Amino acid sequence: MSKKINKSELVDAEIIIGIQKGSKDSLNSLYNSFYPMVLQFVLANNGDEDEAKDIFQESVIVLYNKVKSGGFELNSKLKTFIYSVCRRLWLKRLNQKSRNSASELRDFEEFQAVEYDLEFHQQKDAQFLQMEKALMHLGEPCRTIIEDYYIKNQSMQEITEKFGYTNADNAKTQKYKCLQRLKKLFFQP
């Protein structure tokens, strides 16, 4: 199930990697690519250029902190992510100023809406179903060992006693072998 990577995804990935490495070029690229969009949005919604710069800078800080904290996964185009963060920040600022209401906000770009969350959760549900099927085909004692350890949070010592292994290291070895079998079942087409 290979997905074709388009040019914007490649550029997005390069920017994220550049941020991880502390590259000023990546931040400049981010600014050149997305600031005009934010400026247009803020100006169209009762803001000025200075406010657009502030909002954009705050969104870059949000992105930077997420990337630097590790484990950041970009689940949309970087443009969509930046726009969504800027939109949220601008809404918050407008509400603080009471200059405008959220219902009057004019959008120029796509933003991550509830549909994105719904799609994401549907994908996760499908993966859980796939994992459940893989577990059902795993067989005993592997299924019970995996369920006891990962679902019931039992210790390796408890599993050792339950299955009569001579020590916890033997139980860990068996759990590892079971996980390898589960991976094969899970990733089978």
Structure characterization notes:
- The chain is built from 8 helices and no strands.
- The chain folds into 2 domains: 7-112, Rna Polymerase Sigma Factor, Chain: A (Orthogonal Bundle); 118-186, Orthogonal Bundle (Arc Repressor Mutant, subunit A), CATH 1.10.10.
- The protein starts with 6 loop residues before the first helix and ends with a helix.
- Mean pLDDT is 80; it is low at 1-5.
- By secondary structure, it is mainly α.
What is the arithmetic mean of pLDDT? Answer: 80
Please identify, by name, the CATH architecture of the largest domain: Orthogonal Bundle
Number of domains: 2
The stretches of 5 or more residues where confidence is low (pLDDT under 50) are 1-5
Distance between the termini: 9 Å
Structural class: mainly alpha
- The whole-angstrom Rg is 24 Å
Strand count, sense and barrel status of the largest sheet are:
none
Short key terms for the protein model shown above:
Rna Polymerase Sigma Factor, Chain: A; Arc Repressor Mutant, subunit A; 73% helix; 189 residues
Please give the structural blueprint.
Blueprint: H1 7-21, H2 24-44, H3 49-68, H4 78-97, H5 114-138, H6 142-151, H7 156-163, H8 168-186
Helix pairs in contact: 1-2, 2-3, 2-4, 3-4, 5-8, 6-8, 7-8
Question: Would you kindly provide a brief summary of this structure?
Answer:
This protein is an all-alpha fold.
